Amino acid sequence: MPLPPRIPLRRAQIEQVVTAFYARVRRDPVIGPVFLERLSDDAGVWRSHEAKIADFWANAILHERSYNGNPMMVHSGISTIKPQMFARWLDLFDDTLAQELPDGIAAQWSALAHRIGRGLRMGVEMNTANSGPPILS
Q1: Which among 79, 78, 91, 75 is positioned nearest to 29, based on CA atoms?
Q2: Between the CA of residue 116 and those of 1, 56, 90, what are the distances in Å?
Q3: What is the rounded CA–CA span in Å between residue 86 and residue 75?
């Protein structure tokens, strides 16, 4: 028996939010350049990235088994991602959720995104701290 969704959403709603969010990301002066540097401005590359992220959220929310990846490794391995950028990422995501979904559902997804964002930020912070010069005592 499959698990019930963590949040009452349909796959199409997840895809809608992801598409709207990344349209905003590409225009954002803070995090947009990081994504554009990594993904270029090729529409096919973006579609592929958005599909992968939709799979991530469908896994996290709907318990689908469509996502195969390691977000912690990916995010902590990109030197241009700085810990303070996660606040901007979450602000854009929250704004997108508020525009695309009913308030209660947006709040639930936002809470999940903030938990995940805290973990990713911590991973980037740890990677940044570990990449400095060795501490000799």
Answers
A1: 91
A2: 26, 11, 10
A3: 11
Choose the weakest-confidence range: 3-12, 25-34, 100-109, 120-129: 120-129
For 20-27, what is the mean pLDDT? Answer: 97
Instruction: Catalogue all structural domains in the chain, each as residue range(s) with its CATH number.
Output: 11-126 (1.10.490.10)
**Tell me, what DSSP letter sits at residue 101?**
S
The whole-model pTM stands at 0.88
As a whole number of angstroms, the distance between CA 15 and CA 57 comes to 9
pLDDT of residue 130: 61
Question: Can you read off the two tokens belonging to residue 26?
Answer: 């590409």
Q: With CA atoms as reference, report the closest residue to 109 among 70, 63, 64, 57.
A: 57
